[in-house]
Amino acid sequence: MKRILLKVAYDGTNYYGWQKQPDVTTIEGTINETLSQILKEDISIIGASRTDAGVHALCNIAVFDADSKIPPEKIAFALNRKLPRDIVIQESKEVPMDFHPRDSKSIKTYEYAILNTKLPLPTKRLYTYHVHKDINLDDMRKAAKYLVGTHDYKSFCLAKTQVLSTVRTVYSITIDKNDDIIKFTFKGNGFLYNMVRCIVGTLLYVGRGVYPPEHVKVILEKKDRQEAGPNAPARGLTLANIEYINQEELLLKENI
């Protein structure tokens, strides 16, 4: 028995998210089905991040156990010949049997893209959120500083989330503009369901003058989802990277 790691990239437009669900097409379900056909055994992958419907990924991590004699590094090529073109396995390799993609310490990077033009562009419609109004980047950057660190992010996640704790550590939030694209980059030890999209929606309220930057601190302290802005649409969100780190590196990161 071997444990195989997959680095997965996908366009989430046509999928109901990562996690396998009955009667709908998902990333996990599609990979499970394809792997099972190739390896001639029942395969269930475990993913690091359960991205939502319409969310994209450049690097999600998944593992599975199998008795296959196919060299681990060749599994990516076998999968890519049979998977839909909007899912591509970037890498496959053997990892220790005790490696778990969700339990191992990591830094996750999410990016959110906004097209800030008067009119939308059809070639950007699947990967950006179009906002035609003027956006004050400096105010959003001031507001974002309140959200960096270790906090209870209950105001910025699904109201009925079932996790044991809503405390997370966000290492950095950067906001840059290149031509007409505004890109938010979030790095943290983990993110709650809808957390990044809710933060982006709230920062956009700041950028458009609905909230002053310091109001984000009040929202954070309220621990009430009703206090924050709306979720930004899923299509602008991409899971850009997952970096696994040791405990010493983690302590250095969290000393912020």
Quick structural summary:
With 256 residues, the chain is an alpha+beta fold.
- Give the percentage of residues in beta strands: 25-35%
Secondary-structure element pattern, one letter each: EHEEHEEEHEEEHHEH
CATH topology (fold) name of the largest domain: Alpha-Beta Plaits
Structural class: alpha+beta
The radius of gyration is: 19 Å
Number of helices: 6
CATH superfamily of the largest domain: Pseudouridine synthase I, catalytic domain, C-terminal subdomain
How many discrete domains? 2
Inertia-based shape: globular
Helix content: 10-25%
Number of strands: 10
Low-confidence stretches: none
Topology (SSEs and partners):
Elements: E1 2-10, H1 27-39, E2 46-47, E3 56-66, H2 75-82, E4 87-95, E5 106-115, E6 129-130, H3 137-145, E7 149-152, E8 167-178, E9 181-188, H4 195-207, H5 215-222, E10 237-244, H6 247-254
Parallel strand pairs: 3-10, 5-6
Antiparallel strand pairs: 1-3, 1-4, 2-3, 5-9, 5-10, 7-8, 8-9
Helix pairs in contact: 3-4
Name the descriptors.
Alpha-Beta Plaits, 2 domains, alpha+beta, 256 residues, ten-stranded mixed beta sheet
